[in-house]
Specification:
single chain, Rossmann fold, hydrolase, alpha/beta, Dienelactn_hydro, AB_hydrolase_fold, hydrolase activity, 11 helices, 8-stranded mixed sheet, Dienelactone_hydrolase-like
Length: 296
């Protein structure tokens, strides 16, 4: 989970690197995104509008109206993917990541999980949430998100996507999530098991808890394949989590790829100071392989 402990671990880890948080922050959001995913920043601009279409959309939910970024290939119908951002929410980095996925042939809905409190962007970069002001702003927004609310939101997103001309509603949908969004993919698959065929959690937090509504206990309700990419420092702190996930997947008869990556919590998010391009691309490739196989 992206909390004080993981941030402290990441700070210590970055002290051994030539390129640290201060240097990263100095680049600014647009520059850092362009550096971390060459060509992808341009993909979110008008330069590729012939290839993809991107719009900001509003989706009715039980608790109000959620704003989201919807991006998809400009022509044809495609399998849909619901993308849940990390703790800092929907912002430029996740628009770029969503566009990158759309260019691979998917209709991608990048959601604002904080819509109950404010429209996106809540923050412009992941680093902002660690400031005193950022934490003060986010804490009440995080508190407004409940497991039941997330499940209901997921159902609304699936239903909305099924009606879109760019979506092939005859095919299964997928969901990907980062940090806090990792757990939300589990709730998405359980909320609409007949629609969601695959989920991918990247350095997801809170996947295994003692609570009765723990995400891993939802596996029997799912019909989805799973990819769970675990950060090395998260695994060092909670080594039993991966085993509990494997046991739960086996008991539920779910196909699951659960792997610890040699990278820090946050390594897949392109504006994170600990972004690891090599390991992020490897995890991304595993997701695409699963989607190609499962979203039929």
């Amino acid at each position: 989970m992206c909390d004080e402990i993981s941030e402290a671990e990441n700070e210590r880890w970055m002290q051994g690197r030539a390129f640290g948080r201060r240097e990263f922050a100095g680049l600014g959001a647009s520059a850092s995104v362009a550096m971390m995913m060459p060509g992808a920043a341009m993909a979110a601009s008008s330069a590729t509008q012939a290839a993809v279409t991107a719009t900001t959309v509003s989706i009715p939910t039980a608790d109000g109206t959620a704003d989201a970024y919807f991006v998809h290939p400009a022509k044809g119908r495609h399998p849909a993917v619901i993308l849940w951002p990390d703790i800092a929410g929907l912002r430029e980095a996740y628009q770029v990541m969503g566009t990158h996925l759309a260019q691979a042939g998917y209709a991608v809905l990048v959601v604002n999980q904080y819509y109950r409190s404010a429209k996106a962007p809540i923050m412009n970069s992941l680093a902002e949430w660690r400031t005193e002001e950022g934490q003060a702003r986010l804490k009440p927004m995080i508190a407004a998100i409940t497991p039941a609310g997330t499940s209901a939101d997921a159902g609304s997103f699936v239903d909305w996507l099924a009606k879109q001309p760019a979506v092939d509603a005859k095919r299964k949908m997928g969901s990907s999530g980062y940090c806090m969004g990792g757990a939300f993919t589990f709730r998405t698959a359980a909320a609409r098991p007949d629609h969601v065929g695959a989920i991918a959690s990247f350095h997801g937090g809170g996947l295994v808890k003692e609570a009765a509504d723990s995400p891993h206990l939802l596996l029997p309700k799912m019909k989805a394949q799973l990819l769970v990419a675990v950060a090395q420092n998260d695994d060092a702190r909670e080594p039993a989590t991966k085993d509990a996930l494997r046991d739960a997947a086996k008991a539920a008869g779910r196909t699951a790829e659960i792997e610890v990556y040699p990278a820090q919590h946050g390594w897949c998010t392109i504006d994170a100071p600990v972004y690891d391009k090599e390991q992020a691309e490897r995890a991304w490739g595993r997701m695409l392989a699963m989607f190609r196989q499962a979203l039929t």
